[in-house]
Design brief:
674 residues; alpha+beta; Glutaredoxin; Glycosyltransferase; 5-stranded mixed sheet; 49% helix
Length: 674
């Protein structure tokens, strides 16, 4: 039986187009079919780079007998969580409530009207480790639907009641004492030996690290600085980072960042690129070690190159992910054994590389293979570059992991912001050009007409943008404005902000994750916690703060404050899940600084301004003047590039020497822009 996924725009859904399961995409028609046939819905949610999604597909969805049972007793719906984070959010909350955990693939069973009454994640094809087989689960659920309908509907009603009960999204402003306590909590949760927070598995804490960098800039807290540096260095030197071509994997399965789940996600690499850039500038300001500074800058260059060479699409956007698997195994493309190194490099270089890259006879991964780690800088950099180039040549002959070419607005927004800043600070015009091109794609294809979350091959999807998309794209447009002196980006940022302020507001002053003019689900999702990527409200806080910094719009700033306050309880109670909110709060406490550079773009003064560690500072530059409000009344002095450091449009005396700006030698005055 041919399912309906072959023409889907989602690469993940198309991966299942040849399954014998009669899959539907999420749609009113699918729910109507369940109602017509009086069958429950089996909802399967995953994403293209998900290793365990592939495993369950191969074991169960490709099995004719399992598929036949699913087709007879369920209406089966497949959802790409990256396209539909709203659906994922609703049913992941149900899964966590019913099972105490979550993850992908996510398997939920629903009434024909969408109320969940059973949930789980991966199910094996036969009983294993105390877990029933997937076929047993299906049979029990079909029997319950047919013979214990009232019990099922009662359970679904209880779950729906839980989902319909909002958390308390009211909040108070986060004080400096609140921020200091959050930082102290994170220090206590930090791993003093391996970096990061908590035990395995370890996810790259990019948003928490950004908060801690800003907190350290304000307080000089050395305990914070220690855990930040330890974490950045450990991630960069371990097997979670691709030591040959750059780019970070999704997470480490072990405490020491040795062995990752090998999928590479755009959002991780974009957020980490910006975080490493900010670590590098903090190392300069803090007079950190030269070795660490060289490491931070190398990771920035390599990760930026990874985005451009591995994830950039023909249309100028950035693809969502690279798969974990190739040739039927996870990590095959990336791992090595001593014999492979010997064959590629010869006896002498292989023996040297085995030691340098921590490749062992027994393997640090599976089947005798090792990930590549670079725990110490090479004692012979030229030899390392020669070895690295040769290993890349050999690796290029392997089967490459598949790429999910889907362009996601929010994640492209994070990439645009990181690349724009990197392009100026690292003197890489190619990165600024790439940022502007991706931002143009977002505006031309995603935002107008009607903001959609995803596209593929230059074709818009029908999936409405969520709150995170709006926040990330606003910040991205301001970043491109700051890097290019093109005032159109301000108008575009305002356009996106206007829509966010009108369509996502909640009655209590907080924010919903979906707009009020988009498809209604059984509940309207609303979550302030940062997980793999920023929450909608924290992303919007950053975008609105950047917009307010260049316009002086107090209503926009007030909305950013609301975004922070609605997550205040989470930020103080569980700061590991509110790093992006806490980072925005640090920016609010510092102003944030609004820095106008007049007389140059991408020059020494512009770099000095972006090199400041003032929390959340927003930097814009213009060659000859600009309609951007922050530039009103600001002029280059004596023909020199001139920087104005302002807060709430009240500026210090202008600075004409980049060295003075870098040293913080601006003088506060009470003069407000005209």
């Amino acid at each position: 039986m041919a399912n309906r996924l072959a023409q889907s725009q989602s690469p993940y859904l198309r991966q299942h187009a040849d399954n014998p399961v009669d899959w539907w995409e999420w749609s009113p028609e699918a729910l109507a079919e369940a109602e017509r046939r009086d069958l429950p819905i089996l909802l399967s949610v995953g994403y293209a780079a998900c290793h365990w999604c592939h495993v369950m597909a191969h074991e169960s969805f490709e099995d004719p007998a399992t598929a036949a049972y699913m087709n007879e007793h369920f209406v089966n719906i497949k959802v790409d969580r990256e396209e539909r984070p709203d659906i994922d959010a609703v049913y992941m909350r149900a899964t966590q409530a019913m099972t105490g955990q979550g993850g992908w693939p996510m398997t939920c069973v629903l009434t024909p009207t969408g109320e969940p009454f059973f949930a789980g994640t991966y199910f094996p094809p036969e009983p294993r480790g105390g877990h029933p087989a997937f076929s047993q689960i299906l049979q029990a659920l079909a029997d319950a639907w047919q013979n214990r309908r009232e019990e099922v509907l009662s359970s679904a009603g209880q779950v729906l009641d839980f989902l319909s009960t909002d958390d308390d999204f009211g909040g108070e402003p986060l004080t400096s004492e609140d921020l200091d306590r959050a930082a102290a909590t994170l220090v206590k949760q930090g791993d003093p030996e391996a970096g990061g927070f908590g035990d395995a598995p370890k996810f790259p804490p990019s948003m928490v690290l950004e908060f801690l960098l800003r907190q350290h800039a304000r307080t000089g807290n050395e305990e914070v600085w220690s855990i930040v540096c330890r974490t950045f260095e450990a991630m960069a030197r371990g097997g979670m980072y691709d030591q040959l071509s750059g780019g970070f994997a999704r997470y480490s399965v072990d405490r020491f960042w040795r062995v990752p789940h090998f999928e590479k996600m755009l959002y991780d690499n974009a957020l980490l690129l910006r975080a490493y850039l900010h670590w590098a500038r903090a190392l300069r300001a803090h007079e950190g070690s030269e070795e660490q500074l060289a490491l931070a800058e190398r990771i920035c260059h390599e990760t930026a190159d990874f985005l451009l060479t591995e994830l950039r699409t023909e249309q100028g956007g950035f693809a969502s992910a690279l798969d974990a698997d190739s040739d039927g195994h996870e990590g095959t493309y990336y791992v090595w054994n001593p014999h492979q190194l010997m064959k590629a490099l010869g006896t002498s270089d292989a023996a040297w590389a085995v030691q340098l890259l921590s490749v062992t006879g027994g393997g640090t991964f599976e089947r005798g293979f090792s990930t590549l780690q670079l725990l110490q800088d090479p004692d012979d950099p030229e030899r390392w570059e020669r070895v690295r180039a040769r290993l890349l040549e050999v690796r290029a002959e392997r089967t490459r992991p598949a790429r999910d070419d889907k362009v996601v607005a929010a994640w492209n927004g994070y990439a645009v912001t990181a690349l724009a800043e990197c392009g100026i600070l690292l003197d890489r015009p190619d990165l600024v050009d790439a940022a502007a091109e991706a931002a143009t794609l977002l505006w031309d294809l995603h935002v107008e007409p009607g903001f959609v979350r995803t596209s593929l091959g230059g074709v818009r999807s029908e999936h409405a943008a969520v709150l995170e998309d709006h926040g990330a794209v606003i910040e991205a447009f301001i970043a491109v404005l700051g890097a290019t002196d093109d005032p159109r980006w301000l108008d575009r940022a305002r356009h996106v902000a206007d829509r966010a302020l009108v369509h996502f507001r909640a009655e209590d002053g907080g924010w919903y994750d979906t707009a009020d003019d988009t498809e209604a689900l059984v509940v309207r999702p609303r979550d302030v916690s940062d997980n793999a990527n920023p929450s909608g409200s924290s992303a919007l806080a950053h975008g609105l703060l950047a917009l307010a910094a260049v316009t002086g719009d107090h209503d926009v700033r007030a909305a950013a404050v609301d975004c922070v306050e609605c997550a205040a309880a989470l930020a103080t109670g569980a700061p590991r899940f509110a790093g992006w909110t806490l980072a925005a709060a640090e920016a609010l406490h510092d102003g944030p600084a609004e820095i106008a550079v007049v007389g140059e773009v991408a020059g020494p003064m512009h770099r000095a301004a972006l090199g400041l560690t003032a929390p959340g500072a927003v930097v814009v530059a213009t060659r000859e003047g600009s309609p951007v409000p922050l530039f009103e009344g600001r002029q280059a002095i004596g023909g020199h590039a001139t920087a104005y450091v302002c807060r709430d449009f009240v500026c210090a005396l202008p600075v004409t020497d980049p060295a003075d700006l870098a040293a913080g030698n601006e003088v506060r005055t009470g003069t407000r822009g005209s």
